[in-house]
UniProtKB/TrEMBL annotation:
Name used for this protein in its record: Uncharacterized protein
The entry's keywords: Repeat, Transit peptide
Record-linked InterPro entries: PPR_rpt (IPR002885), TPR-like_helical_dom_sf (IPR011990)
Residue ranges of the region described as Disordered: 1-31
UniProt key word Transit peptide: yes
Length: 191
């Protein structure tokens, strides 16, 4: 019986880092499995795919942003000799920082992305924009979408604009500004 439970625990981890059937370990939850998978993949080092690590990290982040940040830090300490974070990894990290209410760390992670030479996409900005709007700092979010993103060669997407519209109209009651932004979206889309 113990042998069967042990084989299930090992069998829950696939080579690509995905988790076979949530709760694959005896008595384990999906979050525990994700932590186990991440830890196992990190131990493999170069033999682990960044895709698998990112999937496990995203599963950990869904349950606990703080636990995901901790695991990212372990990955970063392991260094490029073991495994190198990619843009997706940083996107998960930025989202975790913002969900934990630490926009400053989210922006620091974004700065690290830019410093490392990754081409930033609009998805990386989404959690930062949501965090700024939630903090009623919609003007800062507008500055990012209307100016900073394009300076970085990043084109805002429909989600970027929707976050701003929701922040302006719903959270701050700035109806006229939201209407102007909506009109601007139409002119940008026509180009």
């Amino acid at each position: 019986m113990a042998r069967r439970a042990a084989s299930r625990a090992v069998g829950a981890l696939r080579s690509d880092g995905s988790i076979q059937g949530r709760g694959g370990r005896a008595g384990g939850s999906g979050a525990e499995d994700a932590r186990h998978v991440f830890d196992e993949l990190l131990r493999r080092g170069r033999g682990a795919s960044i895709y698998g690590l990112n999937r496990a990290l995203a599963d950990v982040a869904r349950d606990s942003p703080a636990a995901a940040v901790s695991r990212y830090n372990r990955m970063a300490r392991a260094g490029a000799d073991e495994v190198t974070p990619d843009l997706c990894t940083y996107g998960i990290l930025i989202g975790c920082c913002c969900r934990a209410g630490r926009l400053d760390l989210g922006f620091a992670a974004l700065g690290n992305v830019i410093k490392k030479g990754f081409r930033v996409d609009a998805i990386a900005f989404t959690p930062l924009l949501k965090g700024l709007c939630a903090d009623k700092r919609t003007s800062d979010a507008m500055d990012i979408v209307l100016r900073r993103m394009t300076e970085l060669g990043c084109i805002p997407n429909v989600f970027s604009y929707n976050i701003l519209l929701k922040g302006l109209h719903c959270k701050e009651g700035r109806v006229i500004e939201s209407e102007k932004l909506f009109e601007l979206m139409g002119t940008v889309a026509e180009r």
